[in-house]
Each structure stands twice: as C-alpha cells, then as structure tokens.
Design goal:
Layout: H1 23-32, H2 36-44, E1 48-49, E2 59-62, H3 86-93, H4 95-110, H5 113-126, E3 133-136, H6 145-159, E4 164-169, E5 183-186, E6 196-201, E7 211-213, H7 215-221, E8 245-249
Helix pairs in contact: 2-5, 3-4, 5-6
The chain binds iron/sulfur cluster.
Iron/sulfur cluster binds next to α7.
Length: 250
C-alpha cells in the first residue's frame, strides 16, 4: 500500500518558547473543566467571532499558534518577509496578543478533536447570531499532519451543524489529501493542494481570468463604507469548496 509522507514533528521558527504569559491561569482552568459545558466556556474565551473588519460575526476564528512561530515564516512558502507579516508586527507591538496566540496553540495541542467539537457545538447552541463557519488561523499556520487530521475530524463533526471549517495556508509542503471536509485556500503556488488558490496581485488587471476578486476587497476599492461591505460569512467564496480562485489587490 502506498504511504503518504507524514510530517509529525512540529516545525517551529525562532528559539524555543520557555514561558507564556497567562499559561498558569489557562492550565488551572483546564484542570477545573469537567463537563462539555466547562470546556465550551473555556474554548469560547479563545475564539473570536468576527474581527471587526473583514470577517463577520457568523464566523469563529481560532489560531493554531502565533505568527512568530509560524512554520512558514522566513521560508519561500510565505509571500512576505518574516518580519513584515502583519500578524508578526501586531504581536510585536502588543505582548498580550503574542501570549494569547501561544496559549491558543497550547489549548489546541491539549484538546482532542472530539472535545473541541463538542465544546464548539455547545457554544453554537448558546449563540444568538447563527454560526456559519470556523476560520482556522488568522495568524500562524498548520504545522504538521496531526493538525490536518485533527482539523478534518472537527470539520466532519461541525458539518452536521452546517458550520464549515476553512483555512488559508502556506503549508503546501504537507499532505492535505485527508482534508476532505476542510475548505483549504492555498496562498502560494508550490503545490496544488486544497480547493483553490487565494492570491494577492499588484493591480486589478493582474487578476487571472479564471479567478474572481474578493468581494470585500472589490467593495473597499469602490469606496463602499467599511460597515456596509460584504464580510466573510455573508460571502462564501473562500468558505465553500466549489468557488474559483480568489484574488485580492495589494
Ligand atoms: S472572497 Fe469572500 S470569503 Fe473570501 S476573503 Fe473575500 S469576502 Fe471573505
């Protein structure tokens, strides 16, 4: 039987992380979790519903780690310099952001897919706004094949709730073939993984014929006020698997 290459050791950039602000508090809360309800309140503190700009409140965001530790930082898989990444700049400017992202990674590594999905389902049952999607990683990226397998199991479960798991990734060196329920937007050209390419171009004329422009980006360029633009969650081009390549103008 053919075997696929499995990357099982997390690739981290930068030095080891010996301490994370707030980790004692997180560990204490984890020790106190006994029920799905308990886990759901903890997980909800590490989810963001929308981001006040492009991502709407119907979409939960969870990061698998900090941009500082991103496996693609300073590699040719990433389209920007490792110190220019907007998320790295944010983490550098605000220490609490870096610590929060690292605690998210810690929580992700401690939670099995079943517990994560059960907790997420309990959160959805309490939401007033209809949950439509779970976006994985605004900063950082998928580290190894175990992340992909866990994401796939979560996505399978959340599909029953009509919540689609999607991600943007430069981790094109990994084997994504098992990610059938996760919508994968690849952000480089190295390998043809996922549902589509999500690319940044210099100008509107550079958008390839077989790609469509990001709806939010198009409205921004047309001068639509920020609070009237179509957000991710209302637009599903990157969320569903059957849309063409998507482009944004830098
Ligand atoms: S194309 Fe739609 S889903 Fe994708 S980033 Fe733009 S607004 Fe969001």
């Amino acid at each position: 039987m053919a075997t696929s290459p499995a990357v099982v050791v997390p690739e981290r950039v930068g030095p080891p992380v010996p301490a994370i602000d707030g980790i004692d508090g997180l560990q204490q809360r984890m020790r106190e979790c006994e029920t799905t309800e308990d886990w759901s309140f903890l997980l909800n503190d590490y989810l963001q519903w929308g981001n006040n700009t492009k991502v709407g409140k119907h979409v939960a965001i969870f990061n698998l780690g900090a941009a500082h530790d991103c496996p693609n930082r300073f590699t040719d898989r990433c389209q920007v310099d490792g110190d220019e990444c907007y998320a790295v700049v944010d983490e550098r400017r605000y220490d609490y952001v870096l610590a929060y992202m690292r605690r998210q990674e810690y929580l992700w590594d401690c939670l099995d897919a079943q517990t994560f999905a059960d907790a997420f389902e309990a959160i959805c049952a309490r939401k007033r706004v209809e949950p439509r999607a779970l976006k994985i990683s605004q900063a950082g990226d998928v580290r190894h094949s175990a992340d992909i397998r866990k994401l796939e199991r979560i996505a399978q479960r959340l599909a029953d709730l009509d919540v689609q798991v999607f991600t943007y990734t430069a981790s094109t060196h990994l084997d994504w073939s098992g990610a059938e329920h996760v919508t994968v937007n690849r952000s480089n050209e190295h390998h043809e993984i996922g549902a589509r390419r999500y690319l940044a171009v210099e100008s509107e004329v550079a958008i390839p014929e077989d790609a469509v422009r990001c709806v939010f980006d198009e409205e921004r360029a047309a001068g639509v006020p920020s609070d009237e633009r179509t957000q991710c969650g209302e637009c599903r081009l990157c969320i569903d698997a059957d849309a063409p390549d998507v482009a944004v103008v830098k």
